[in-house]
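[agent] plan:
  1. take the single chain provided in the ticket
  2. run structure prediction with default settings
  3. attach C-alpha cells to the ticket
  4. add a short note for the reviewer (M.T.)
[agent] executing step 1
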Amino acid sequence: MSELNAPAVTITKALSLSESQVGFITSVFSIGGLISSTLAGGLSTKHGLKISFIITTIFYTVGSYLESIAHDFFWMLTGRFVSGVGAGFAIVFVPLYINQISPVQLRGFFGSLCQVSVNAGILLTQVLAIRWANDENWRLILSTAVVLGLITLVLVILVLDESPNWLVLNKHDEAAGFSILMKLRNNDRSACETEIELWKQEKRKHLELIESNPQLKNLNFYNYLTDPNYANSRKVATFSMLGQQFAGINSIIFYGVKILNGMFPEASILINCMVSVSNMVITLIASLFLDRLGRIPLLLTSLGLMGFASVGLSVGVLFDNSALTVS
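[agent] step 2 finished; step 3 output follows
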C-alpha cells in the first residue's frame, strides 16, 4: 500500500516518470481496490473464504512481483493495479473471516486487529525504506512483498481452515463446520452447538424478512443509492467515509516522505517511520477499548484529535515551524 512512499523520488528517476505518471501509479491502486471490493461479496459467498484468500494472495504476490521488476511506466502501473485488486479483496475477506470465527464477545477487538495489521504492514515498508530507499536497493522493498505474499499463500493452502459459518449456511456441510468450530472453541461441544443454532436462526430471520418485503429480493447497489428507505444508512456510511478521507491519513500513507522532505530532507524517511509507529500503537490501544467504550465515542474522539492535529500541521507548514509540523 505505502511501499512507493519513501522510494518515490528514486523510482521516479529510475523509470523516468513524470509527476502525472507518479500520481496515476499511486491512484490506480485504489481503482483496483474499488473494483475488487465490489466483487468480493459474491466471490466469497459462492466459493468460500479459503478459495477467496488464495485468489487474494495470488493477486498481491503477482502485483508486487510486477512492481519489483518494472522498468517503465506501463509495468509499474500494471503491478500497482494488480496489487490494488488484491488489497481490495483482502479488505473485505479478512474482516469477514475474523467476524465469522471470533467469539461474539471478542469480535470488536479481533476485528480491529485487521487495521492494526494494515498499520504494521505500512510500518514495515517504512522501516525497510530507511536502508533500501536508494538507487541500488529500492526494488528490495517491493521484493519483500513478493516473499510475504508467497509465505501467506502457502499458509493459506496448508493451514487455514474454511469458515465454519460458510460451510454450515452456504455449503450445508454442518459436520465439517462443526469440526472446525470445535477447534476454535477449545472443543466446547455445547458452545459450538449453540453458536451454530444462532447462525441458523439469523439466516431464517433474514429469509423471513426478504419474504415479507418482496422489494428486498431485487435489492442491488443502484436501489440502495436511490431508495429513500436507506437514506439514513447512506448518510452514515457516506459521512463516515468522507470523514476518513478528509482526515488526511491517506496523504501521509502515500506521500508522507514527499511532504516532509521539503522541511527535513535528511530525516524525512525516519520521521515518516515514527508517524507509522504512532499510527499502529494508537490503533492497537483503541482496539482494547472498542467493545468497552463503544464505536461512536472513540470515533468522535478520533475525529476531534485528527482535526486538531491537521490544524497544527497546516500552521506548521505555512509558517515553516518544524517542531509544530512534526508534533
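[agent] step 4 note for reviewer: The chain has 15 helices and no strands.
[agent] ticket updated
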